[in-house]
């Protein structure tokens, strides 16, 4: 059943595809023919996630997979973490396609990047439906839409397609080209370093002293080389952008690692944030890049807490699952409990190995943002190298200059736009401008033509969410005022924007009151059945349980509610009030 992994030699584990640079790239002549042919083929434009998957299929990083999974492999992977031939592969690699694309089995299709560049041609041999809840439960272990993968799945096409692919070009990236290496190129570097043992390290965060310590300990333990391989594809929404992170990695690599035994390469992986299954997958990928050991610390590939406040995965679940399969994979694991800093000794130690009553220091990712970057404070020396502290502080403006999104939800006529109008003026007093994306207005241009079916409503909200996320990414402030009746879509936009910059405001006006107000005359029309699918009358409104603010409009004026929002922004530090007051103290 598992001979493929077991029979491989120690060290560099997968044969390098008959000497070719990558797994699926076509020869020059065939390539020209394909490019010509592709002009007439239907096109599928890949999401960033699918584009990352395609690249890793093409370069052999997902070996032995060489195309998106067909139904038998897919079902088997969900149920058993194994492909139908028994080979361990814990994450489904699938290509979702929307219903609007007209395709049949036997067709050839051009796979194009988000920017419409031609990447590959697929001959479709299978088209099959998939079940969101089933996949979410199997991969992420939850259907909770506060899990970033689960909320994103709602936007995927409802069919998966599979079939042999011929890759014409890898997606074009213009940044850090010297570090974007295929498995074969990485193997080459590792061979030149000359050690039989190689331990790989995965991260999606800037590396601090604890990570440095962890990686150096691992390299020493295996008496070999270290492969630093951070992810630059798609990580958890709200993570520090990869440009900034790679600048940090380069500074560390240059100044603090032994170049005779360390390689740095970037991995264009689209993470699933699936904890244990993801850890196992990471190990398989690194094995394809030539490592024979893999580091798993605390909370590997964890998306944090679920909507009930509990973590999605226990901190050491990932280690446990990987350990169970490490022999079969032929990959050794370097497992570590949490490393904390002992100021008296000026060293790091694993938390379960500290004897006696020592003072320990630890700064969480949230504290890094809230207590340091947001306040314009440099991170301390013991926590991170000063080169890294400097890069992060240059890139991150203090909180009152960062972007945020106020997302209003509530029935039509609840008072969302009216309150938003007041917020604009009050914020101006603080010198902060804010853009508004009002549902009624947006439907006249950005989302013109969309109706009120569930699908169209979701598309409307996603488009607003997309624009809002761009504004917030560039440190702008934005208010979105649309009914946004569905919890899963609200979760999706929260995830797109980043939870710590997203403020959900529920304007809690009852249907009775909205209908009585009926300023737009829409409730009357809906009752007369002149319009259908009207929220509250013959379409659902899912009341949010996770609103940051709940506003009542019967007993409170728009001004009072706008003041509450400003107070909330102050408390969160998005307007200067509170921080300025602290600075004076
Ligand atoms: P991800 O696992 O999502 O890539 P990180 O970048 O936080 O997220 O972690 C990278 C690796 O470093 C993981 O294996 C994680 O368990 C480990 N790690 C991070 N911080 C520590 C720490 N303080 N102690 C031990 N291991 C850690
Ligand atoms: P939405 O944007 O939620 O569809 P609007 O703000 O366009 O709602 O409409 C709300 C209507 O209710 C406006 O005509 C507004 O004057 C009226 N209204 C009455 N009392 C309030 C209140 N306390 N807060 C907000 N709007 C109120």
Give me the secondary-structure topology.
Blueprint: H1 3-6, H2 28-38, E1 43-45, H3 48-59, H4 71-80, E2 95-97, E3 108-112, E4 118-123, E5 126-129, H5 132-139, H6 148-153, E6 159-162, E7 165-167, H7 183-193, E8 198-201, H8 209-222, E9 225-228, H9 242-256, E10 262-264, H10 275-288, E11 293-296, H11 317-329, E12 332-335, E13 339-342, E14 347-350, H12 365-372, H13 386-395, E15 404-409, H14 416-429, E16 435-438, H15 439-442, H16 454-473, E17 477-481, H17 487-497, E18 502-507, H18 511-517, H19 522-527, E19 549-551, H20 558-572, H21 577-584
Parallel strand pairs: 1-3, 8-9, 8-11, 9-10, 11-12, 15-17, 15-18, 16-17, 18-19
Antiparallel strand pairs: 2-6, 3-4, 4-7, 5-6, 13-14
The structure holds adenosine-5'-diphosphate (2 copies).
Summarize this entry quickly:
With 585 residues, this protein is α/β, with parallel strands linked by helices. It has 21 helices and 19 strands. The strands form five sheets. The chain has a five-stranded parallel β-sheet with strand order 10-9-8-11-12, with helices on both faces.
């Amino acid at each position: 059943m598992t001979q493929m992994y077991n029979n491989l030699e120690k060290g560099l584990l997968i044969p390098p595809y008959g000497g070719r640079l990558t797994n699926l790239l076509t020869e020059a002549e065939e390539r020209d023919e394909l490019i010509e042919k592709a002009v007439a083929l239907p096109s599928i434009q890949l999401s960033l996630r699918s584009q990352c998957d395609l690249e890793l299929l093409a370069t052999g990083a997902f070996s032995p997979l060489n195309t998106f999974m067909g139904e038998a492999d897919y079902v088997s992977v969900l149920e058993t973490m194994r492909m139908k031939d028994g080979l361990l592969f814990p994450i489904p690699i699938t290509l979702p396609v929307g219903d609007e694309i007209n395709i049949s089995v036997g067709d050839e299709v051009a796979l194009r990047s988000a920017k419409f560049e031609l990447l590959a041609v697929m001959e479709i041999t299978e088209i099959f439906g998939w079940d969101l809840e089933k996949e979410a439960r199997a991969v992420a272990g939850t259907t909770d839409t506060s899990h970033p993968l689960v909320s994103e799945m709602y936007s995927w096409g409802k069919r998966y397609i599979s079939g042999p692919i011929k890759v014409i070009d890898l997606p074009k990236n213009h940044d850090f080209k010297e570090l974007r290496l295929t498995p074969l190129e990485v193997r080459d570097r590792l061979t030149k370093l000359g050690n039989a043992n190689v331990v790989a390290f995965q991260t999606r965060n800037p590396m601090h002293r604890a990570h440095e310590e962890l990686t150096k300990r691992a390299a020493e333990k295996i008496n070999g080389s270290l492969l630093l391989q951070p992810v630059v594809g798609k990580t958890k929404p709200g993570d520090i952008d990869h440009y900034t992170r790679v600048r940090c990695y380069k500074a560390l690599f240059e100044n603090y690692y032994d170049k005779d035994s360390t390689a740095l390469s970037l991995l264009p992986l689209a993470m699933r944030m699936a904890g244990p299954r993801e850890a196992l997958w990471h190990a398989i990928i690194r094995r394809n890049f030539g490592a024979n050991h893999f580091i798993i610390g605390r909370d590997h590939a964890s998306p944090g807490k679920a909507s009930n406040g509990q973590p999605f995965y226990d901190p050491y679940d990932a280690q446990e699952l990987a350990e169970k399969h490490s022999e079969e994979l032929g990959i050794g694991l370097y497992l570590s409990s949490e490393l904390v800093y002992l100021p008296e000794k000026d060293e790091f130690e694993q938390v379960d190995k500290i004897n006696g009553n020592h003072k320990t220091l630890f700064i969480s990712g949230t504290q890094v943002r809230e207590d340091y970057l947001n306040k314009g404070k440099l991170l301390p020396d013991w926590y991170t190298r000063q080169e890294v502290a400097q890069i992060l502080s240059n890139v991150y403006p203090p909180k009152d200059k960062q972007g945020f999104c106020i997302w209003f939800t509530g029935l039509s006529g609840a008072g969302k736009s009216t309150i938003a109008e007041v917020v604009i003026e009050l914020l101006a007093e603080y010198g902060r401008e804010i853009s508004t994306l009002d549902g009624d207005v947006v439907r006249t241009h950005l989302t013109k033509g969309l109706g009120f079916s569930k699908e169209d409503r979701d598309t409307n909200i996603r488009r607003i969410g997309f624009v809002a996320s761009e504004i917030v990414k560039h440190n702008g402030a934005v208010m979105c005022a649309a009914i946004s009746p569905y919890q899963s879509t609200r979760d999706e936009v929260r995830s797109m924007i980043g939870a710590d910059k997203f403020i959900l405001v529920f304007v809690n006006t009852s249907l009775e009151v909205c209908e009585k107000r009926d300023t737009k005359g829409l409730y009357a029309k809906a009752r007369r059945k002149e319009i259908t699918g009207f929220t509250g009358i013959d379409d659902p409104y899912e009341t949010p349980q996770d609103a940051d603010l709940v506003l009542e409009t019967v007993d409170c004026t728009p001004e009072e509610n706008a003041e509450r929002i400003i107070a909330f922004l102050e408390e969160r530090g998005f307007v200067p009030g509170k921080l300025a007051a602290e600075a004076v103290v």
